[in-house]
Amino acid sequence: MRPTKNQDRRKDPRKPCRLAVSGFDKGSAFKGFAKNISRGGAFIETSHAFAINEDVFLSFFDGDKTKVIGKVAWTASDGAGIAFKGTPQRLATEIERLVPYLT
Fold it and tell me: How many CB atoms lie within 10 A of CB 7?
């Protein structure tokens, strides 16, 4: 279920975007678009059904192919909120490549 404003626990503000993304979870592949992104996560718009807390592997098509590992934080009928996992500096570097104005 999509979090309400009072439930929103994001550490970093999200920026609107439209980045093509592909990924997989438990052996199932999916495609979609990142509608917004931050250093901490993204909303992935897709028809794929996710389970909360499952690991996902994402590839963003931003000229290069930026790869990020995440965990499903919440789900909605049109996609899922993904919390990125990894070392903070590596994540920051990868996300800054995707959205240069996130500093």
Answer: 9
